[in-house]
Specification:
The chain has helices at 20-30, 72-93, 112-122, 136-140, 148-167, 176-185, 210-220, 241-250, 267-277, 290-298, 319-325, 340-346, 358-370, 375-386, 389-402; strands spanning 2-6, 34-38, 41-42, 50-54, 57-61, 63-64, 101-104, 125-130, 170-173, 194-196, 227-234, 256-263, 282-286, 302-306, 330-334, 350-354. By secondary structure, it is α/β, with parallel strands linked by helices. It has 2 domains: 2-200 and 388-402, 3-Layer(aba) Sandwich (Rossmann fold); 210-385, 3-Layer(aba) Sandwich (Rossmann fold), CATH 3.40.50. The strands form 3 sheets. It has an 8-stranded mixed sheet with strand order 4-5-2-1-7-8-9-10, sandwiched between helices. Strand 12, helix 9 (267-277) and strand 13 form a beta-alpha-beta unit. Helix 1 crosses helix 15 and helix 11 (319-325) packs across helix 14 (375-386). The protein is globular, with a radius of gyration of 21 Å.
């Protein structure tokens, strides 16, 4: 089977790039399928459109406008133009290839035109891996709205979103709360084509032994005698950075240490706080290479997840998986609409509280510091049973074969 995958992740190889997407593509390859990827490069990279071919994998890299870490206007204009650029590139490079299955994920509406084009041309089956419910997530945190230019962009993207749901033969959501939300807010969709297809990875034990923990902590100046709470990932508006700072303030005298690693549009806000507060139990670091990051997480004690309390859509961040494979228990501080907290607590591998009360979080951390549990091992076992990449592959195959 020829499988075509659309992604805004910029990578040159599915073997050397580890993510929920490339892990899934390797699973398709392992099962004998020919994998084709459209992975654009932004203009700021300074590279022309090109194609990279390796064993059973072909990656087309069209040149597009800037959409990551740029202003909302440039991002909006670049996003709107992606579909036209991709169709043109595929007509040039994939004109003689017939595709059987089209996979696509976050943010999906940018791929509407090429998906419609290939589906009609090849009579291909289509499967949406829904990782973001856009544009509503942007409305929730004020990046889009109902009036002015923001309102115009929202109505455009919402129309595109509905068209994408319509063109998708199956829609795989990250959790049951996502399924329920999509069906409720899009009543025109056949509910039978919406299912849970969770974020998944190739499960690898990333926990660290005692000697490695000591070495990593010494390398990065992390206290050896403290319980270390680590957050790794994007630092933007979805994470609710002002609330994170509020939490750091109320926890400054606790006998633990907070490590935040990442980058994003709001990194500078945390950087300013780190410089001016002189808080001794908090360290901020720029994003690390994946292998170094995995080593760092393994040397910590509790993984943190933050989501802005204004979200009405049920986010389910994939960074949860990196904590689970490092055998770290997870503390999630989120809005009440995501079911991530329910999954974590019912799965017995962590704790949850709402992201609107820093004092409540501090009380929960005090409780955690006194606890003695096997949450980290529980999380790794839950990961193997529920979030291995084989599970997502089987769900997709079953859905497509069922028709």
């Amino acid at each position: 089977m020829n499988v075509l995958f659309f992604s805004l992740d910029d990578f040159d190889s599915i073997e050397n790039y580890r993510s929920i997407n490339t892990d899934l593509l390797r699973e398709f390859k392992r099962n004998g399928h020919n994998v084709f990827v459209v992975s654009p490069s932004e203009r700021k990279m300074g590279l022309p459109t090109r194609m990279i071919q390796t064993d059973n994998v072909t990656i087309l890299k069209p040149k597009i406008g800037n959409i990551q870490k740029t202003n909302p206007i440039e991002k909006g204009i670049s996003t709107i133009s992606i579909g036209r650029i991709l169709v043109s590139a595929m007509k040039k490079y994939f004109s003689e290839i017939m595709f059987d299955l089209i996979l696509y994920c976050t943010p999906p509406i940018t791929f509407l035109k090429p998906i419609e084009y290939i589906k009609k041309r090849d009579n291909a089956r289509t499967y949406l891996l829904l990782k973001d419910i856009f544009p509503q997530n942007a409305v929730d945190i004020g990046m889009l709205g109902e009036t002015g230019i923001k309102g115009i962009l929202y109505r455009y993207f919402r129309k595109q979103e509905k068209r994408l749901y319509a063109v998708s033969d199956r829609i795989g959501c990250m959790s049951q709360a996502n399924v329920d939300y999509v069906v409720k807010h899009n009543p025109e969709i056949d509910a039978g084509k919406v299912e849970v297809c969770p974020n998944s990875i190739e499960v690898v034990d990333k926990s660290a032994d005692g000697q490695t923990r000591v070495a990593v902590r010494k390398q990065y100046g992390i206290p050896l005698d403290k319980t270390v709470f680590v957050y790794g990932g994007n630092l933007g508006k979805p994470q609710g950075i002002p609330f994170i700072i509020e939490c750091l303030k109320v926890c400054r005298d606790l006998d633990c240490f907070f490590l935040i690693i990442g980058d994003g549009t709001e990194y500078h806000v945390l950087e300013d706080y780190a410089k001016t507060s002189e808080q001794v139990n908090f360290k901020l670091m720029k994003r690390l290479p994946k292998e170094d990051y995995d080593n760092m997480v393994g040397a910590c004690d509790v993984g943190l997840i933050f989501l802005d309390h204004r979200f009405t859509i049920p986010n389910f961040p994939s960074r949860l998986l990196s904590y689970m494979q490092a055998k770290l228990p997870v503390l999630a501080c989120t809005d009440p609409n995501t079911d991530m907290g329910k999954v974590i607590t019912e799965g017995g591998f962590g704790w949850w509280c709402e992201s609107d009360d820093a004092t409540a979080l501090a009380k929960l951390i005090k409780k955690i510091l006194k606890s003695n549990n096997n949450f980290g091992f529980n999380g790794y076992d839950y990961l193997r049973r529920n979030y291995g990449v084989e599970k997502s592959y089987q769900i997709i195959q079953h859905s497509i074969n069922k028709g």
